[in-house]
């Protein structure tokens, strides 16, 4: 029996996310669930703990909106073009609120999601030895390897309450196809208690079955499926659209001050009633250009190529 999990993003966020939840965000520069961050802001889901590796706008938005109480991450930035100004302002000045930081490396965050996916309480890593990270993070425990005698660092499993993951294609049950950079998304989906999956397009299960090796996230991990073209904008999605660099630069400029970021939120997050209006605000010519830029650099996998 197939279960239709298709819903809207507002309904998924309202039904599955609570204040105080621990949230994981998929992707990394590519396929980050930016539209999901917009919706969390629109619904004022607050006091969130965010677990990511090295993320961009999807985290910066939530920080600037004052919804985050803690970040567990390697770093937060605006990939390629600049620093994470909202992150810095929150940590350094407590504006718009103080944010606690739990520091890891990218590898350590990945191992935390792997531990959560495996259902084990922790995993050992060799990275971070010789750095100050374990000194300032009491969640990292240094342990002597009983087999070789060297010191290893133990990192705790990540078990987010809700994960947001944006993919290229999915069926209505939640079987998700991903290509390009996978990031930690497979283990994020398996470690989270609930998964909200957004996708560029919903396709029939019969099409999913034609290329089974491209199904990176199986249906049993997923609680909600949302068809959301351009759901990662202004970041890109392999095979669909390129990074919107001018938009990102405008956003970064606005983020130089809290007042500027608040004004940006009013224009780009609160001025529309649904995501389709956001896309209309961007304009069809702009979106078509982003699609063309991606097509010039990437080909969508097709069944005849397998």
TrEMBL record:
Gene3D superfamilies: 3.30.30.40, Glutaconate Coenzyme A-transferase. Signal peptide: none annotated. GO terms for molecular function: CoA-transferase activity. The keyword Transferase applies. Keywords: Transferase. InterPro entries: CoA_trans_fam_I, NagB/RpiA_transferase-like. Belongs to the 3-oxoacid CoA-transferase subunit B family. This is Glutaconate CoA-transferase subunit A. It comes from Desulfotruncus arcticus DSM 17038.
């Amino acid at each position: 029996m197939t279960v239709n999990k298709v819903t809207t993003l507002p309904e998924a966020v309202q039904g599955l996310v609570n204040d105080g939840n621990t949230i994981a965000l998929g992707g990394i520069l590519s396929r980050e669930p930016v539209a999901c961050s917009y919706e969390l802001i629109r619904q004022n889901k607050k006091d969130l703990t965010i677990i990511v590796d090295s993320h961009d706008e999807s985290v910066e938005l939530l920080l600037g909106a004052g919804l985050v109480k803690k970040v567990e991450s390697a770093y937060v930035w605006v990939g390629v073009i600049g620093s994470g100004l909202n992150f810095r302002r929150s940590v350094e000045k407590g504006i718009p609120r103080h944010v606690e930081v739990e520091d890891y490396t990218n590898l350590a965050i990945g191992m935390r999601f792997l531990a959560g996916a495996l259902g084990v309480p922790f995993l050992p890593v060799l990275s971070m030895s010789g750095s100050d990270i374990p000194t300032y993070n009491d969640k990292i425990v240094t342990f002597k390897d009983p087999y070789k005698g060297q010191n290893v660092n133990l990192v705790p499993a990540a078990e987010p309450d809700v994960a947001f993951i944006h993919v290229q294609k999915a069926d209505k049950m939640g079987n998700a196809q991903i290509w390009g950079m996978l990031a930690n998304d497979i283990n994020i989906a398996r470690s989270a208690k609930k998964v909200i999956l957004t996708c560029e397009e919903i396709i029939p299960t019969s099409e999913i079955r034609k290329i089974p090796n491209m199904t990176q996230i199986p249906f049993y991990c997923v609680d909600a499926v949302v068809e959301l073209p351009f759901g990662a904008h202004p970041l890109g999605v392999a095979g669909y659209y390129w990074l919107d660099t001018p938009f990102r630069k405008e956003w970064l400029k606005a983020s130089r001050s809290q007042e500027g970021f608040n004004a940006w939120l009013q224009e780009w997050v609160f001025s529309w009633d649904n995501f389709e209006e956001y896309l209309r605000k961007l304009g069809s010519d702009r979106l078509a250009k982003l699609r063309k830029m991606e097509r010039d650099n990437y080909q969508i996998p097709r069944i005849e190529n397998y």
